[in-house]
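Exercise 3.2. Students should predict the tertiary structure of the chain below and write it as structure tokens, then compare their answer with the key that follows.

Predict this chain's 3D structure.
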Amino acid sequence: MALVGKQVAVWHNVCMEQAGLYKDEGLDARLRLRHPLVLIWPGLVLLGALLLPHRVWNTLLIGFGGLFFVAFVWARSLARGLYASRKLRYGWVAVGDQLEEWFALRNDSLLPALWVEVRDESNVPGYQAAVVRSVGGKDFDRWRETAVCQQRGQFTLGPWTIQTGDPFGLFIVTRQYPISNEIIIHPPIIHQIPVPLPLGHSSGRTPIQQRHPQATTNVASVRDHRPGDPWHWIHWRTTARRDDLYVRLFEQDTAGDIWLILDLQADVQLGSGPTSTEEYGVLLAASLAARGLRQNRAVGLATYGQLPQFLPPARGQGQRWRVLRALALVRADGTLSLAAGLRDLVRVAHRGTTAVIITPTPHTDWLPGLAELTRHGIRSSVILFDRASFGGPENSHALQQIIRQLGYACHLIHREEIPRPDINGERWQFRVTATGKVITIRQPAAPHQTANETNAW
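Answer key:
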């Protein structure tokens, strides 16, 4: 029986370590009186016992003294043995995803904590982790807090504090956890957008032979096999003819790079919150970037907020994270006009690039910049927000016709055409079996792609 008990204890400790229950990042607990004025009552009783000696005063004095002693011992035991931890389940989330944290309380004391208040100072919109729990002596408690991500941006989880005390309410024990974790909520990715991704062109450039994560249909040549080359790249005819392993070289895509230009000038924006032109512009930029990267095209980003950002065109998953992170942090507080932004683009974009300009502007002073891009061999495509659908007084149809008459593609986007993620709908639900297999319990039909789904790209 002793051996079985020891095995159970070891298994219990391992489980708690895996749950993060032994992770202690808090400061030393602080023990204090809840109300210092409660000391007046023992003082009055002691004074009465000295001035008017009687058994009643002695009984009251012993009762008050015993109460304070028991309360102090209880609170001091909790101050030495009560700890907490928290763990974020998913470190990468987007608007519409579920933010989930696991909390744990561990009580090494023999005495129970009848109430433990968790005070959280996280600033994630719509997320509140403050709660009151209880935990027995030599026991632990786990629970989770969830919320649907409502707003993109950079936020913090923590700092936070736990507070408990004795059952009589005389002493308070406080343990602070000053460390806060940064979390970035990324914009969602929409598939059903009524905007085609423009085709690029090579403008006579020589194709560059370059290895790709996936083989393409454009084979340029062959070379010697090197360690790490996939076996399905082997060119068997050349291998048989030369009696050595040779692999195929694939041509780089000649469709051309894509620059996404997001106009964040504050003076031309309309609306506020999720229905603003700022949020719809970020949504379109994220969705178009995801589509281009899925097609193995190099995608770059230029945003003109208060702090302009430039991400040179690149391919792959790393570029997707960089673009989404940049879009999560941008704000429509810029003073730089779109015309000035196009002049900057001429200096950094190379010939054969396609520029996709996303703007709600009603002005026409930036239109000569399109001709300047054309003279430098840069194709342009404009995504123009219909200002009337966003509550503006202007009519954007006239500006669309002007752009098309100049010979450029222009797509007029109404607010109702772009679906927003349903933050109140059903969520993905999973269950992990005893063998470690993950089973999908619920799969909602959502119009957007969540952060967890992007890992399958």
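Discussion points: The two ends are 53 Å apart (CA to CA). The chain is about 30% helix and 30% strand.
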